[in-house]
Structure formats: C-alpha cells, structure tokens
Amino acid sequence: MVKIGILGVGTVGASVANILETNADILEARAGKKIVVKSGVVKNLSKDRGVSIKLSDNPSDIIDDPEIDIVVELMGGVEEPYRLVKQALENGKAVVTANKALLAYHRYELQEIAGNTPLMYEASTAGGIPIIGALRNGLTANHIESIQGIMNGTTNYMLTKMINEGALYDDILKEAQALGYAEADPTFDVGGFDASHKLLILASIAYGIDAKPEDILIEGIENINQTDVAFAKEFGYEIKLLGIAKKVKEGVELRVHPTMIPASSMIAKVDGVMNAVSVVGDNVGETMYYGAGAGGEATASAVIADIVDIVRGNQDPMLGYKKPLETGMELLFESEIVTNYYLRMSVIDQSGVLAKITKALETFNISIESMLQKPHRDDELVKLLFTTHACQEEKIQEAMIALKKLNCVHGEIAMIRIEK
Amino acid sequence: MVKIGILGVGTVGASVANILETNADILEARAGKKIVVKSGVVKNLSKDRGVSIKLSDNPSDIIDDPEIDIVVELMGGVEEPYRLVKQALENGKAVVTANKALLAYHRYELQEIAGNTPLMYEASTAGGIPIIGALRNGLTANHIESIQGIMNGTTNYMLTKMINEGALYDDILKEAQALGYAEADPTFDVGGFDASHKLLILASIAYGIDAKPEDILIEGIENINQTDVAFAKEFGYEIKLLGIAKKVKEGVELRVHPTMIPASSMIAKVDGVMNAVSVVGDNVGETMYYGAGAGGEATASAVIADIVDIVRGNQDPMLGYKKPLETGMELLFESEIVTNYYLRMSVIDQSGVLAKITKALETFNISIESMLQKPHRDDELVKLLFTTHACQEEKIQEAMIALKKLNCVHGEIAMIRIEK
C-alpha cells in the first residue's frame, strides 16, 4: 500500500482525495498497488473541505510522518512550499506538485535537491493535459524547434468572446469574474504572468534554459480592442495569448504575448477556456495537445497520473535530461526577438501622412506587408492598421517611439506580434 | 552504452538509425547513456538503405547477439515478427515495435511473454503522436469514457479533399496513390482495417479488452459520395473515418466507420493527412492529441522515445495495468451499438412516399430527426436524406432491409453513423 499526504486541501486537493477513493479500482489495477490518502494539511481547520481524510494544520504531520511515501503539494505560493518540498525530499519522500510558481522560480534547485527521488509536476502546466509527459518522454527524439501554447483558460475565454461575439474587453472581464474564471484582481491571468510560469517549465524540458519570469518578455491582453479583432478577421488571423518558446540560430526566444496566428492553424481553433500546446520537433513535425487547463478534477487527474507513475517505479529525470542539453541554447534578450508586427495608430486624415509613416519605418529597415485604413466615428482622425515584414523587436520599439513623435500621429500606438 | 538491433530497415528503420546518429547529443543527455545501433537485418541485402549501420539478412544476428540490449522490430507482417519478438523477449532483450498488426493479433500473448522485460509500441498507433504514453501514463486517474480517433491519414486526406474541394472519390483515390499516401491496393486504408488495428491497441489500454479485428465493426469510406458531403455541410457535420471505443452501461463499443461529427468539435477540424485522437476521461474531460500519423521520421520519433524510456529504466506495464481493469467491460456485439444514423436513398417522386417510409421506420421504433429531399438530375426519382434519433444498430439494419423492399425505394440505401 502507498500512503499519500496532501499539503493544501482546496479544490484540487479535495479532488485528488476523492478521485483516489472513487477510482480506487482502476488505480490499483494500473499502479499495481493500493494508493491511500493518509492525511491532509490545511491552514484553517474549521472550514469544511468535502473530504473524508484526516486533516491537520501542521505540515510536519505529513513531511515528517515515516508512513507517508508521497507528498502532494497543492498549497500555492512560492517560499513556504519550497521549504516544505525541500524538507520532504530530504526526508526521502517522493513529491508531486501542481505549483507552477514554485517551479517557475525554483525548479533547478529542486532538481538538485531531489536527486534520484521522484519530483513530478504534470499538473503545473496546462491542467489535465499530459504535456509534461509528452515533452519529457514522448518527444525525446527531437530537437524542439518551437512550443506555442494557449496556457491560460481565462484569457482564451475572453479573447474567444471578443472575437466570436464582439464582446468588449471590460464587459467580458466582468463576465469571466462572475463565472469564477477570473480573480477579483485579474492581473495574474490577463497580464500573462500565469502563462509565463508554465512556459518556463516547458522551456526547461525542451531547452534546459534556466530563466525566471522577470527574465522574459511578458505582455497581457489588456490593450486588445475590437479594431484589432476586426483587422485580424479581415486578414485571416486569430488573436491568442500564447506562451512561445522558439529555437533560432542565435539562441532561444521565450515570450508571452497576444499573438496573431493564421486562423487555419490548429491552435487557432482552440476556443473558450480550453488550453492547447503545439510542439514542433525536428523529426515529428507539429504535434498538439488539447484539454482542460484548469478545474479541480482535471488538475487532480494530472496529479494522480504522477502518483501512479511514481508507484510504478518511474525514474525519469525531473526536467527530462541527465546531462546538459544542447549547447548554444541561451535565452535571447527581448530586443533580439525577430517576428512580424501589427501596429494600430490614429493619424490625421490628410494627404502625405502615409508617406511620412512609411519613411519613418524605412529608417529602421521596417517594411509594411499589409494595411487597412478606417475612418474614426467621431473625429477627423483615421485608424491606420498595418502589419510589417519580419524585423527585430528592438527596431519596432524604436520605430514606435519615432512614429509617436510625428505630428500626424495622435495618441498611443498599439502593437501585436504575429506568428506565421 | 546501449546497443540497438533493428529488424527491418525500410523507411522507418533507416530514419531510426539516422536520427540516433544525428540527434545523438540530446538523446544521450535525455537518456543518460549513449545509444548506438549495432546492426540491422533486412530481407534483401543488395538494396541500398541509406544507412551506415552493419546489415545482415539473418535475424539471429540480432536476436541472439548477447551485446544487443534492445531489439527494434519494424518488419511488418504478423507471424514472423511474432516469432522473432517472442524469441528476443525470451533472450531477455527489451523490444520496441511499430507493428500494429502484430499487436492487433498478439498483444496479450506478448504481454505474457514479456513479463517484466520492456515491450513498447508507441509508434504502432498514430505515428509520432505520443498517444500510448498519454493513455498509459497521463490519464491513469480516469475511467475512459470514450476514444475517438482519426487514425488513418490516407482516408482523412481523401475525405478532406472530398469535403473542402468537392473532389470525387475515384479521382482523389488516384491522387492519393500518386502521392504515395495510398497503396496500389488501397483496401487496408480505405476499408478501415489499418485504423482498426490501432483502435484495438488503444482499447486494450483503456478497457483491457482482448478483441481481434474480426470481432469488431469495420466499415470503410468507399461508399461516401458528394450527396453525403453536401448533406453533412448543410447540417453542420464533418465526415471522418473514426476509430471509436466507447463505454456504455452494458459494456464497450468498438467500431471503425465513417462518422458524421459536429463541425464544431476539435477532431472535426483535423484536416489532410494528419491524425488526432480525442480521449474523454471521467475526471479530465476531453483531451486531444494531434500530429503526423505516418512518415519515416515521425514514426521513428515514437520508436526512439520508447528506446529512451527503456534506457531510463521505465517499468510501465505493457498494456498499462498490472491487475485486471474494471469489471463489466465486455465487448458489445455490433448489433448492440446505439447511435444516430444518416440514411440516403432514392425514392419515387410521388405523394404518400414519405408516409410509407416513416411508417416502415416506426415499425422498428426509429424516428426521424432531420430530413432533406433533393431532385435527381436525370430521372424521376428524388434523393431522400435523413437522420434518425438514437437507435440500436440491429434495428437500423432491419429497417434498411424493410425499406429496400418497398416499391417506392430504388437501388441501394447508404448509411453513415453519427456521433453527437
């Protein structure tokens, strides 16, 4: 019999406990041993958790219990779980965590501490989708060329509503909050930070890159509006908040931002709260993994898959490699990213304006690929929307500053990156 | 160092040998050991294989070579590979096979023979997509409610062309043959047999069902025509050749047939030669896995993933379970399948005909859900197309016999099953 202790019995923790009970038949058949939750630890003992397991408010009751084989960490936060997971590993206990923030900051220290003790984290990225297993086991024959993931359901729900139903950003945010998809302070989701944690985890398996959220480009969906949506539709794009890891000659780009992608691509077809991760390998080509990225039961499904793998004797290296991966896989600076860009600006409706703008862009070696001009409803400005050929991030940022200084350009310039 | 022997050095075998060489850097990092191909066995030594490995025409040079740790079986066929894989396992060698036919017929004997020796087969199903790993490891927490897979690229290519471009079946079959997607005798693909092998492998992991191709319903795409395609479009369906495994109260349905599925479902959006498998679990909900289902390099990607897993010390049970899975998971008879149906028939253009047909259907408790009537171009018949509410396969088969006996019905009646 294998005994489990759960640190943090919230929605996911309760689902883990309940599924281990209700699906005990298949779990024992698949793992080869009975799996039983011995106890859980919570902050507040007076709250009903809807589980029948023994609860305590002292983590030591799990971490230091010699009977417990596997510690499941579902607390949230970073430093406290780090301390507890470290202690559990040092006590020789296998650990399963769903904590993306913990891994975004401490995965390399934890790998070191774990050594040969299993430390698994399928649930940390894209909820119930077994993407960690796919990348760590299923695609090992490949140099990973790119990863593009819809790894945040809240923002995908919002963008889908904005695109399919013409909903306004503020309205749809309120709706997402009412439905429980978005927090009262939605920044972590809509600002792209949640997705960045997941991207960093995947990038470690693919490229062995040790980066923290602060090191990479993260932009949210707050500035997307219906003008952008209409442009995207007209030019055959969808807009998705993507986590992107991409190997180029000079190194690896890691970035999270709203992205225009061809509407015909598989990942563009993923709507609503669903998640999906597209992985391109040098041999396998494109593969994609789709499913629920959140929710108690879907996340618990991934937590339990890890438990079963541990019980079966899984010895996979935590981050998928036992010796350093490819050389030359350094993280590129934000300024070094190369992609196509969409720009939206308001300009005076006068002859010669377009010439001024294209000339300003030429200074930075940026050329326009497609353009759309639309009248404003209530003043004498026109909206100028265009996409550029591929150029360096540094150049587009400089060009935007230069464009804003032109007299003919009014207000802010909005930019969305494009992946072809 | 781990030494590999390859039985059968065709397209996939050559890709395996070449990738193990070109991607040796990441493979050693991920597996923790150098992986080297020691030799290959082919039937015809005079043919150039485009590989630099030592070749022999005697399987014993691999099977009985004490230096070889892992035997990769890529020969095709059933009985000869069965004999050789058995011998390799008995010699204590781990085996990786991409041979779906071998597994469709002998997976349970092989599991028995293998015991604790690894026998892996990721490449047998859906090429480069790591669907075996997803099902055997990623979704272990779930009772599998259903599997729906596009597991044959040839037929998906043909159906996509028929639907998107209005191509005729015979023309597109010729094109697929010219492109190398379809064999000179296309029966194995277009008849659904290839997909059935893959379905049986997945059904074993999901339900522990021991069935052979002869035991299940297999129908091909040969009778689909542009009338069906037009109807599907009008009523919001796509037509896909699906392998379906579905748990119902009474047992498990296993079937391969052209299927009308809602155009809004993710699997309906998978076009061209690509494969995808949708798996619904009781906790995770729907997940989907997408990628290349064939091709030397994509298939080799899966073969090598298995090799790496074996080198890492993977101890997963071959079919994903160590003790019998759920009880009551018996294979249902074809006649017991329950689903919705689409029927196409030609009837005389006369009043009262519709009443006769609905009355005939009522005799079998079948009711019509939607209907479309279209004139024939060149005679006095009309095409009657309709879908039924859910009913039992046995009833629809009996109803079709009864309908054909009516004087007002001319020629054959075509039927396509619908999954909602």
Summarize the structure.
The structure is a homodimer of 420-residue chains. In chain A, 36% of the residues lie in helices and 27% in strands.
Please tell me about this protein's structure.
Two copies of one chain form a homodimer. With 420 residues, chain A is of the alpha/beta class. Chain A has three domains: 2-120, Rossmann fold; 132-291, Dihydrodipicolinate Reductase, domain 2, CATH 3.30.360.10; 334-418, 2-Layer Sandwich (Alpha-Beta Plaits). The first copy, chain A, contains 14 helices and 17 strands. Chain A has helices at residues 11-22, 24-31, 60-63, 79-90, 100-114, 131-138, 153-164, 169-178, 187-190, 193-207, 226-234, 296-312, 353-363, 393-405; strands at residues 2-7, 35-41, 54-56, 70-73, 94-97, 119-120, 144-150, 217-218, 237-248, 251-262, 274-281, 285-292, 338-348, 368-375, 381-388, 391-392, 409-418. In chain A, the strands form two sheets. In chain A, strands 7, 8, 9, 10, 11, 12, 13, 14, 15, 16 and 17 form an eleven-stranded mixed beta sheet that branches. In chain A, helix 4 links the parallel strand 4 (70-73) and strand 5. In chain A, helix 4 packs parallel to helix 5, helix 7 crosses helix 8 (169-178) and helix 13 runs antiparallel to helix 14 (393-405). The longest helix of chain A has 17 residues, at 296-312. The first copy, chain A, is elongated and about 80 Å long. The mean pLDDT of chain A is 96. Chains A and B meet through helix 2, helix 6, strand 12 and helix 12 of A and helix 2, helix 6, strand 12 and helix 12 of B. Strand 12 of chain A pairs antiparallel with strand 12 (285-292) of chain B, so a sheet runs across the interface.
